[in-house]
Amino acid sequence: MTRIFLLPLLSLLLLPLHAQTVEHVAELNPQQKAAAKHLVLTGTLTTTGNSDFRQMRDLCWQLECADLSRAHCAALPANAFHSRHRLLRVLLPQDVERIGSQAFFACDALQTITLPATLQSVGDGAFNRCNALQTLVVEGTPQLGAFAFAGCTALKEVRLTSPTPPAAQTTTFEGIDQAKCRLLVPAGAEEAYRKAEGWSRFYAEASAPYTVCDPSACLVPLPASMTLDGGSKTLRVKAKWLIDAPAALANESRQARSLIDARLKGCSLHGRATLTLRTDSTLPDAEAYTLQVHSKGVSITGATAAGVFYGLQTLDQLLRADASAACCDAVPLLTIDDQPRTHVRELMLDPARTFIPFDELKRFVAEMARYKYNALHLHLVDDQAWRIEIKAYPELTAKASARVGMDDMLVPIAGFYTQEQMRDLVAYAASYHVQVVPEIEMPGHEVAAIHVLPQLTCGAKQVPIRTTCGVSNELLCPGNEFTYTFLGRVFSELADIFPSPYVHLGGDEAGNPALDCWTHCDRCRALKHQLGITTDDRSENWRLQQYLFDRVIDTLRTKHGKTPMFWYETDFKRIQPGCVTFSWRHGLTRAAAEAAVRNQARIMFCPGEHCYFDYPMAQGDMPEVNWGMPLIPLKQTYDLDLAWGMGEDFERHNLFGVAGTLWSECINTPERIYYQAFPRGIALAEVGWSPQAARRYPDFLRRLRPALTDMQRRGVTHSMAF
Ligand code: ACM
Ligand code: ZN
Q: The whole model's pTM is what?
């Protein structure tokens, strides 16, 4: 017993001695919040908007101990301490009745938690991935949600005071090592716990029921066509799998092996099955594949290796089935013929506002590839940071990749990617058939570069790096040749690193009023004069913008063979034919689509009202505090139709693809990228892949469930606010 009590005691001794005691976090000034390591709150805690919890989570970024035992709070909100990696200890309010879903998701320094007797429920995934948690004390009989303590792999002891087992689910303690974890229950209660759902796993391997996959209920995105071949005949999949693939599919063969191993980990295997991988260039689309489940195994034939890879992702979902376990027992014999609706399906990450550690980029690629996304768009620079090593200008990353602060969060944010890392990412992503598209903004959103090289802007002004969101009026100066030299060198280095045929030039939000920086600049005026631009109704600045883009686009095309992309703004009167314009502004998709048609350009669909995943999915969902973001419910994402009422010709000639954005002003941990991205990212994957006529939202929700359950089992967070 001594050892049991020593551990929490030791962790308490390690905590900072100087606790700040206040009724509410709001009593502290911004610096005190940023410095707080040990907080004692004594008030009736606020739970919505810029609540005590939001401030502890997002502003008190060094917080190690939150003592709420003298505070009052009936319900800890969902995500209360989501992914606070420094949090060592929390003392819960003595009157707490509910803990919201994912309240302590990935609090992976938390060592011990006591759930007081007042507690009635612990939400789904509340302590999922708290993988340093060693001791859990349950003093009452709260209902414990699905995956509430999943992935708590360090759990050594679960101590309960109730002779009646609290209601738990089979997944509540999923993934814990029961051989290393002691369950301490009151004398005489063992038999009741041994038999109780969720608790029985502490006594013996749970014997799961035999499950047969229902293929109509587990595939996202929905395949183009599927037929059942064998009536009630099935293939038993918990078998020893042989993979038969030609050398050209070595990568897919490797991917298949790791996918099957991950699904079958810990299962007892019976018999053999063969996975046959082939290519057949006569299939109707470069990304098309056929998957057949037959009595001896599974055959996947892709038009290319990419098609084979997508077939493997479908197989993974068949094996996962309803996600009642990592793998089902049997899959019905069937044939799937599948191909995507559109050929570029991307998600955009923004490491500029909040740096994303390099390995996290790789992790995200592997997750998005599960839903057949094939492009990762990296927003590498902005007003707040420059994140990619440029050999010609090493001072960019030396002086513009570290700052303190993102809006009200006074947190240090630092880091950049070396070119070697980016090459590594490109190769890694290619093994998932994901291309990496770099974005360097021009002429706006460039304050980080201007901070380092003031000659880039009009009047060579010395400006600080921004620590807030919004639009800057400092722009690159098109009247200075150095701007072209700079962009030329940057894009030349990028072209060498990123083999993607596309490069994104930004182009959005260039000042407010737009492009006004160029109105009074001598160099800009001289250039206008030289170009014969004589208007003075502000159209002169848009013409200068056209000149800047034309020059850069020309270099990108002729020197580097790249197709430029940019964010659509209504004032782009002309889009270079063949370029890709991104519709993003709320309500302007029709205008962007018509401009694309008029200019023989192509359009990437990421309308703000469907595809901005950094916005909250529901009222009260993260990010609770933001700059006035509208809500984007899951259904709204799903309801996007890429035809946009423009007809078949448009779809054939102008539709380029679909993109979801994850701007990171309000995404302050890597885990929260996933939280924002999913499940809307899965809805968008289906928008981009599946035939429009076959899509139905209720059916999507049914097929989505197992994907989300599987995420929780794998310790991947997602919003539950739908
Ligand atoms: C954007 O959201 N400013 C493209
Ligand atoms: Zn200028």
A: 0.96
